[in-house]
Design a protein that fits this description.
The protein has ten helices and twelve strands. By secondary structure, it is α+β, with helices and mostly antiparallel strands.
């Protein structure tokens, strides 16, 4: 989910779709373009996506990050982006695409669920935001010419995307805090930057950091939350979000305080 400023919105391609506005789209196996959108793409993965995918594959977040993602720091950004690594075939297909379709379909990423809608966070200042939705199917997509009528909420329901959208929005709020450089001379790949990245993208390592280091001697976490975080990755991710706010930006949170 991109952060957008008011002056940028008129430059972004695609038709803006309002909450109850209807659009037409239907993707199915009979279309000649079926699965063509799963090739040679820049697919951003958000923290909740990584949790769902690594659990689906029954591997650790360390292994998932090493095998399936590219990590890059774009110009004028101060927190790395995580992209799904395409295969090295001529078509550069998604690594989870098979002859039968998506092998991780039940736990596919937020971007895949929301397609052909792209969401962004329009910031009027550094704190208040509005979610905008853009209808942006690629030219080759034949699903945009189908007659199935949808609204944003109906499409989210159809794709079981509500939780994914909510978690991506929460991450978008955290990510927006990095509009200015918080690292000083250390840089995004310095010690603090690596710890912040771990807290949201390497959730298994973050769990070890909380329970097997001196973390709990330095920070107080609500007991009810901490108990769930031992086994629930989503609860642990929420701790990671709060800890980044507190540790990097000195923003007080209800769930984490200094001892």
């Amino acid at each position: 989910m991109k952060s957008i400023t008011p002056d940028q919105i008129i430059k972004i391609p695609g038709k803006r779709i309002k909450e109850n506005e209807k659009f037409h789209f239907h993707c199915h196996a009979e279309l000649a373009c079926f699965n063509k959108c799963c090739r040679n793409l820049n697919l951003f993965l958000y923290p909740y996506d990584v949790i769902k995918l690594k659990n689906h594959l029954n591997i650790s977040s360390d292994v998932f990050l090493d095998k399936y993602v590219d990590i890059l720091l774009r110009p004028d950004n101060f927190f790395p982006d995580v992209l799904l690594k395409m295969t090295e075939t001529d078509e550069k297909t998604c690594p989870f695409l098979t002859e039968k379709g998506c092998s991780v379909y039940i736990n596919r990423p937020d971007t895949c669920r929301t397609f052909p809608i792209e969401k962004g966070m329009l910031f009027n200042d550094n704190t208040n935001h509005t979610i905008i939705s853009l209808f942006r199917p690629p030219d080759f997509c034949l699903g945009q010419h189908e007659q199935k009528s949808l609204t944003l909420s109906k499409w989210a329901e159809d794709q079981q995307a509500f939780t994914y959208n909510k978690m991506t929005e929460k991450w978008g709020k955290i990510k927006s805090l990095f509009y200015k450089d918080p690292w000083n001379s250390e840089g995004a790949y310095g010690p603090k930057g690596k710890m912040a990245f771990m807290a949201v993208y390497n959730i298994d390592k973050f769990r070890n950091f909380i329970f097997k280091s001196t973390f709990l001697k330095r920070y107080k976490v609500k007991a009810s939350i901490l108990k769930k975080a031992g086994k629930d990755d989503t609860v642990l991710l929420a701790i990671g979000f709060s800890w980044i706010k507190f540790f990097i930006f000195n923003i007080k949170t209800k769930s984490i305080t200094l001892r």
